[in-house]
Fold each of these.
Amino acid sequence: MSECLFCKIVAKEIPAEIVHETGRTLAFRDINPQAPTHVLVVPKQHHADAAALAKADDGLADDVLKTAHDVAVQEGVAEEGYRIVFNTGPGAGQTVFHVHAHVLGGRSLTWPPG
Ligand code: AMP
Ligand code: ZN
């Protein structure tokens, strides 16, 4: 996916502040943070959204979730509580179509989401 922004970050063609990396996942800080901790976790393999990731059926969704939790621990927000968000589809606010988990924490998170 040569035109995909997050594929380019995975390929290290575009710089990002990488905070965690495994064989199959990469985590980097969101460029427009909505909370003191706002990290994006992506599978290195391109899947457009959470629905496509779920269908990958090879444990990759598992890896993304585990990395999201590891990032929360590393960022020191796991105990106080944090939020993992997959905006899925334009109607939900998805703007980058390479699946990513937002890991948000470090402030009081309201519900409905805010
Ligand atoms: P979404 O709207 O759920 O698709 O989330 C896309 C996220 O990617 C937004 O929170 C953006 O701030 C973030 N973003 C866009 N470009 C970059 C970039 N170059 N590096 C890091 N985060 C980015
Ligand atoms: Zn991609």
Amino acid sequence: MNRPAIDWDALVDAAKEVRGNAYAPYSSFGVGAAVLTGSGRIFTGCNVENASFGLCICAERVAIGSMIANGEREIRAIAVVTGAPTPTPPCGMCRQVLAEFAQDVPVYLASTTPGTMARATSLSKLLPDAFRGDMLPARDGGGS
Ligand code: THU
């Protein structure tokens, strides 16, 4: 059965809106992310920084965590919005976390800076030759 077309406007709007909640007092670099699941729901996240800088969490992983906490497992698309002069792609750690729950999904990068061109890319372009769980030796049970 064909799935409905991806509503990119809705996904970008959701990422823009959640970016307003970004907690980024150290970098002043607010990020919003919205994932579309296989069942058509949207989950959002913003970055959450910490005085202990290494503990900062990216918007993408917050959105994916919310998706998992709500019982979903499949990412169909993701939009990331910043205020940068050019749209910025997910960091390496977030690419790997995306690959846990997505095959080759479209990734849409946008900025709130006026006049900025959005950029469409994909997970396989951002993370070719991903390490995936099916490369691990088979193990029985557990993990539920
Ligand atoms: N950040 C994200 O939220 N997503 C990315 O993919 C790149 C970086 C956040 C982390 C930190 O709060 C700020 O942007 C500057 O690195």
